[in-house]
Structure formats: C-alpha cells, structure tokens
Write a structure and sequence with these properties.
Blueprint lengths: L14 H11 L1 E6 L11 E8 L2 H14 L3 E4 L5 E2 L4 E8 L4 E3 L5 E5 L4 H10 L24 E2 L2 E2 L4 E8 L4 E6 L20 E9 L11 H6 L7 H15 L7 E5 L5 E3 H11 L5 E2 L5 E3 L2 H7 L6 E2 L2 E3 L6 E4 L5 H19 L8 E2 L1
Parallel strand pairs: 2-5, 3-5, 4-20
Antiparallel strand pairs: 1-2, 6-7, 7-12, 8-9, 10-11, 10-12, 13-19, 14-16, 15-16, 17-18, 18-19
Bound molecules: uridine-diphosphate-2(N-acetylglucosaminyl) butyric acid.
Uridine-diphosphate-2(N-acetylglucosaminyl) butyric acid binds next to strand 13 and helix 7.
C-alpha cells in the first residue's frame, strides 16, 4: 500500500495525492491475461484496469500518461492473440447497459455488453436485422473495430453512430456510420488515425419488420423462403456455428484467424485454370473477388494439422485452436507456416484478422 507523507494539517493526503491514490487503486499490477483472451494463452500485463465507467477510463488513461505507458483496450478478448507479455496498461472495458432511444427501433448498447447477448435481447424485443450475427463472440465495443460480419450481414448495416472517448483530447464525441469508414473486417479504428478513440457505446436502428437475409448458401438451403421467421434464422445460424466452429469455452480459439484474401478477377481466373473450381464471393469493387482463405488452406492440407499444442481445427481450416497449453508464439508460428504455404502454392498473401499484441 502506498505510504503518503503526512500533510501539515494531519495524516490525510493532499488533494493531488488523493487523486493519484484514487487513480492507482483501480489499477492492478502483473495480471495474468489467460482468462481475458479466448485463445486462453498465457501472458502477463504489467498493469491492468477493469473499466466500469467513463470516469474510470479517464483515470486509467491519466495514470498511463503519467507513467508513460502504452495502452491496449480489451473487450471480450475474442479477436486477439497475445504473443508476449504486455508491458503497458490493459484497459478491460466493462461498461454495461442497453437503452432504447427516441425513434423506432433505435437501441444503444454500452461497450462492455456481450455481442451475442445484445443480439438475443433484440430478438426478444422483436427488433430485427442482426439474427445472422448470432453467436459471434466478443463485445459491443470490439464489434465496430473490425466490422464483424457473418452469413451476408455485417455490423455496419444497422449501426447509426458510435460514442467514443478521444483519448488525446479527453473529450467524448460521436462517429456517424460514414465517419467509421467501414469495410470488410475494417474500420477507421484499425488504422492509425483511429487509434486514439475508445468506443464507449454503439447505437443501432433495427426494424420491427422481419428483414431476412438468406443470401448465404447454407441458410438458403436450411430455411423456407418466403415465410421464414427471425427466430428461425437466429436458431439456424446458432446451429450452423455450433456444428462448425469450436466453442472458445471448450477449445481456445478466435474464430477465423485470417481474412479472406481479395484478388483481381484475372488472378482468380488464372488460379482456377491451374487449380480447378475455386469458390469466390463478389466484392463491392468492380474487378475484385474474395476467395475463402479456408478453401485455400483446406486444399493445402492444413485442416486438423498440429504444431505442438497449436492446431488447425478439424472442421474448419481457418480456425486455429489452442489444444491445451499453447502459448501465443506456438499459435503465431503455426499461422506463419500456414501463410507461407499459401504464398508458395497460390501466390496469395494471407493477412491475419486476429490482432497480434
Ligand atoms: N471451406 C473449406 N474448408 C474448410 C472450411 C471452409 O473448403 O475447412 C470452404 C467452404 O466450403 C466455403 C468457403 O470455404 O466454400 C467459406 O467457408 P465458410 O462458409 O465457413 O466461411 P468463411 O469465409 O471461412 C466467413 C467469416 C466467418 C463467418 C463465416 C460465415 C471471414 C474471415 N470469416 O468465414 O467469420 O462466420 O464467413 O459467414 O470473413 C470470424 O470472423 O471469426 C468468423 C468466424
């Protein structure tokens, strides 16, 4: 415990000392991060703060500024890989709350809310649009950073605005959907210009009407159209995800490890003539197509392969798992081997979707 010099009027700390004590009290030293990342890999944070309010966030950032520490914001820890100990301050965002705003279907959720919990909440309130994003692990605060998406829907579609703390100016501001510069698993917050902002809450405009999106083959095959209900979509997405993707509570993983690569149509056609039929998805840009990294990795024989305690999931070649006792470096080395094999076999560079810390 800190020992404060006694002031002239007694043993109470001065106001400055009290504020420093207050700041420091919420900060823990040398915290094990294994429970805070869905890979379950061990790494130690030099400093760690559990953030339950905007005030607590401000105090933690002030503490980091005073000590010249780097800061890493952490949500559900389901899209990160700790490859070594973290020397700075980890802010674990735990601000909670869901509220309804004026306007039909407008809902705001705080950054510490669980994404799937929010999707289920909306489903039960008959607010529709995000059924396809059921069971995606992670938090509301992390979801906009990589614009989470699945089964033909992404977060950007129904997002109205974000409320963020500008950590350089210490002011709260909002970001409209356009200002977030969303793309495929991308937003301004992944780029340098966006690093100073911490997401506090997100507002969405959902629909009282059913908005089925059955573009995705597996959903089209499993569901009646027309006549499908939001509950059926939600249940089907949960069932497909449970059957194909490992539950991080049982087997450490972070979902897709790599992004699906985008190549020119010419390159895609050349690859097809060399390797035979290859699936592809259209992109928003003319002349470019997205190839499923899972298909490339599967073709290259990666499904189910291991490198010590790090392994490729048996049912999905894009999902790396901690099969017990792996550390971040084990998983990173396996990912690097996978990526160089795809480079040499197909001439395509794979980019991690997971953030390496
Ligand atoms: N495939 C294989 N082998 C495999 C797995 C898949 O050949 O081991 C083939 C499939 O047959 C299919 C294609 O690869 O033709 C795509 O597979 P899948 O439908 O599983 O989708 P994905 O492109 O691998 C993306 C997202 C997932 C999301 C699904 C469903 C990325 C990087 N991943 O996966 O998101 O759930 O679509 O929409 O965009 C995540 O981001 O963590 C994630 C799980």
């Amino acid at each position: 415990m800190a020992c404060w010099p006694t002031s002239a009027i007694g043993i109470f700390p001065t106001r400055a000392q009290a504020s420093a004590l207050n700041r420091a009290s919420q900060i823990q030293r040398r915290v094990q991060l294994a429970p805070y990342n869905s890979f379950g890999v061990p790494a130690v944070a030099a400093y760690f703060a559990n953030i339950g309010s905007l005030d607590e966030l401000r105090r933690a950032l002030e503490f980091a500024r005073d000590k010249r520490l780097s800061v890493q914001i952490l949500g559900g820890g389901s899209n990160v890989l700790f490859v070594k100990d973290y020397e700075g301050l980890i802010c674990h965002m735990n601000i909670r709350g869901i509220s309804h705003l004026p306007g039909p279907g407008v809902v705001r959720a705080s950054c510490g809310e669980n994404w799937h919990g929010f999707v289920s909440y909306c489903m039960n309130k008959s607010l529709h649009g995000y059924e396809n994003l059921a069971l995606i692990p992670g938090s509301i605060g992390a979801a906009p950073i990589q614009n989470i998406g699945a089964y033909g829907v992404d977060l950007a579609q129904f997002l109205v605005e974000l409320e963020v703390l500008d950590s350089e100016r210490d002011t709260v501001r909002s970001f409209s959907r356009a200002e977030c510069e969303f793309g495929y698993r991308d937003s301004i917050f992944k780029r340098r210009a966006g690093h100073r902002y911490v997401v506090l809450s997100a507002s969405f405009e959902l629909s009282a009407r059913n908005l089925p999106n059955l573009d995705y083959q597996a959903l089209k095959e499993a569901l009646p159209n027309p006549g499908v209900t939001p509950r059926q979509i939600y249940d089907t997405v949960c069932r497909i995800r449970r059957s194909r993707l490992p539950d991080p509570a049982e087997l450490g993983n972070a979902g897709s490890f790599f992004k699906n690569p985008v190549v020119s149509r010419d390159k895609y056609q050349a690859l097809q003539s060399e390797h035979g039929e290859m699936p592809s998805y259209a992109t928003e840009e003319e002349g470019l197509v997205k190839i499923p990294a899972a298909w490339l990795l599967d073709r290259a024989g990666w499904k189910g392969r291991r490198r010590g305690p790090a392994a490729v999931h048996e049912k999905h070649a894009l999902v790396l798992v901690n099969s017990g006792g792996a550390n971040g470096e084990d998983i990173l080395l396996l990912a690097q081997e996978m990526s160089s094999s795809i480079q040499s076999q197909f001439g395509i560079g794979l980019v991690p979707e997971v953030q390496l810390i």
